[in-house]
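Input sequence (479 aa), recorded before submission:
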Amino acid sequence: MDWNYDTEPQPGLGDRRVYWPRGKTLGGSSSINAMVWVRGFAADYDHWAAVAGSGWGWESAVEYFRRIETTEDAAGDHQGRSGPMSVSQLRDPNPLTDAFLQACTEVGLGRTAPSEINGPSPEGVAQAPVTQRRGRRCSTADAYLKLARRRPNLTLLTRTLTTRILFEGTRAVGVEYRHRGAMRQARADAEVVLSAGAINTPALLMCSGIGPADHLRSLAIPVLADVPEVGRNLADHLVLPIVVGVDSSQTLYDAETRRQLLRYLIRRRGMLTSNIAEAFGFVRSNTSLELPDIELLFVPGPFVDEGLGKPEAPGITIAAILLQPHSTGSITLRSSDPTQAPRIDPRYLSDEAGHDRAAAVAALQLCERILQAPALAGHVTGPMQPPGLTGSPRIAAVIERHAQTLYHPTSTCRMGSDPDSVVDPDLRVRGVDQLRVADASIMPRIIRGHTNAPAILIGERAADLISNRASQRASSESR
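Predicted structure, token format:
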């Protein structure tokens, strides 16, 4: 169910490789993510509009989100009411989640109403809205594919690897793929659309001869279109987690019990409805900033070793996330073999001015203050990860040994109006014809917040762009 990627060694993180999971199933990463539904800040979309046209701005984004969402239980002017994606509040939030929110207010952070967290400037902390329907995940496969599968003009193949895009000259005419051990082709009458994500989309473009010419030639890949920025501008949200032990039997450490299983199966309630990341908030690492640059995230359980380790005792996790990192990386190929995983190098904390590292330290200092606030301090028994450390030594150890991805890679096929961008504002790949990209790789800049919602927005807008072109084509043919 997972592409199971790892990064190249990261000098900024003690030369560690970082685990990068990606959804390898219907619904992609929306089927394995933490279900947090965050639109992002108006300023993020207005920046997209500045580089790619007004159709990508906040006013347009709000209309798309209202079309996408069905919000079951929140009030306010920002929510959708009849879309395919079910968005709700957690049915059974953990008591320690409320203790975290109280601790945040005790250190001076504002608390935002759930109905406002997806407004234009959602500063403050709140319980996370989630993509759930009656306590169960609502992925894009649930929301979109189940209905679309009834259509006679859709063929769905699983356990299938696309190996390259087929061209006649510079015109995309289909794809080559491996299915059940055999190489096959699917031909396109109109267009080919890539939605393989910020890692696999640029890798597939490069395997097909579209990308930095020098890199392709070094791997003996014939160059169809020299597009230097394919695979560049990789951005991700770096997470800095502190895990502490608590004297509570209410953490997610105790979620997998018979009682909790029965509560879930019978009433769709209990710990097994948790999305793990139950609360979050947007704050500033320094008061001179115009907008938040840090996200706080709370897990009422011990999230150790990048989620791969088995915790030994009850605990909670407080994490800080760098929302608009100055450090960027790249996706490159290891070889011309499309079955080989590409090289992933996010270059965490590598910006020359050191802005990202300074923000990371300030954010972790804030996490320390929250842990010492009355609402949480009484529950905490001591450090768990990193073990035996507090204060400055803990901050240094978190960065060196435990910083990880929030699973939000973007921007490797950057959209823009400028000729150096990989795709134009209509998502068409430059240098070739009849090929578009519709996934998080096209984001001109990473969003402040989680990337599931804006990725779905990109899909909805792509559908409009394609159908409008189809309508225009039909109209011209009828004339």
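Checked by second reader. The chain has a mean pLDDT of 94.
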